[in-house]
Amino acid sequence: LQDLWVYNLNRLQWTAPAAEQQQQDAAENGEEEGAALLAPAGPPASAGWSVTPFQDKLLVLGGHFKVGKLKKGNALPPISVWLVDLATLHWSALPTSGDVPCARGGHTACLLPSGDKVVVYGGEDSHRRPIGAVHVLDLQDLSWSELQVSSKAQPTPRSGHVATVVNDTMLVFGGGSIASCFNDLWQLDLQRGAWSKPELHGPAPTPRAGHSGALVGDYWYFLGGGNNVKGCTDMLVADLTELPAGSVSWKKVCSVPPGSPLSSEGISLLHTPELNLLVAFGGYNGKYHNAVSVYKLPGYEQHARSPVKQQQEQQQAKPATPQEQRQQDEQLQRQQAADERVQQQQLEAQVAAAAGNGSQPLQGGGVPMSQGQEKNLLRDLALAREQLKRDLAAARQELELVAGAADAAKEEAAVQINMLSRQLAAVQASAAAAEKVRQRSKRS
Question: Residue 110: what are its φ and ψ, rounded to 5°?
Fold first, then answer.
């Protein structure tokens, strides 16, 4: 595939920027709706590429393309380098220089903490041969260089692994060759060019390739992958708090159902710092998936609510101006008046309904009702009250989930909560009025 999609976590909605732009251009040019879309001006259809966030852009490296079989003796093509501008969602190809590595897929590309270099490791070339070299792309002058490894101990060349960078160390876990999968964990000192294995604690993970990883602080989470026989049904985490001392601890986070998208190869996993969620997408385990799943990390509630709390604290700390105070008072008065009108209308409707059944109004607005009418009215009001309570709880949960997002989304959720609160107050008032009517009916 070669399409680019954007998923909005606040609205839970997918958009295809290229398709939207082409549809808009077609409409402006008077073309028929539903016309075939042109291929986007990006890389050709590929698989096994890497995506690395870089400033306000995405760096897309390599991938396996559908090309003709290479003739024996021909040099391998160079790795492709593309950039996606997140502000415009436009593609651009980047020409590079230096010791350019060959084309590959199933590799990893990690941005260094300095933000000016990307380390590329492993993958498979166009002949399906695993690669073990380490290359560095300088993002300032777009020049490549190969990292010279000084240690004798080195990981077996591989693809389908995961990698991350912590300070000056690159960690590599798992992956495989054509017939084998690995469960080893390696660390590469990027300053000395030396590979080594940290001391491991906890239950050893099963071999896997095609899995995905996301670094959250000192914890490296893993999901998905397989071992050429079946998909992995566990979600793991590597505790890196003791990595400076040369120690890593394995822990199992949870199990996932066999055959589910979460036990697929090629699944993607990323961390959203704003909500402290892990977001997983796609994968293949006999069929391709397009499911989006989220995992709430410890501290999710604090992360999800912190933007709202910050806004409330800012509003409380900043005193309202006289004009703002008048506007708030007028708005409160209008809301109270509207609530009273709703309650009055509901009571009048109840009186009219009872009068239509041949009942005579009593003094004070009471209406005698049969025992069956009383039970039906109270039951309907109780059901409406419980439904509104559930809607209100759902709206409040929605407000928490979208906290920290666009102001428009937060305002919409807040308006919904206020409306449901007013409806709940009106129903409760109606229930209280109905109860008074019932008591008066008993006394009469």
Answer: -115, 130
Is the model's pLDDT at 11 over the cut of 80? yes
Distances (CA, A) of 329 to 340, 411, 419: 17, 19, 18
Range 39-48 average pLDDT: 77
Beta bridge partners of 353: none
- Check pLDDT > 60 for residue 408: no
* pLDDT the model gives residue 66: 73
Q: Is residue 96's pLDDT more than 80?
A: yes
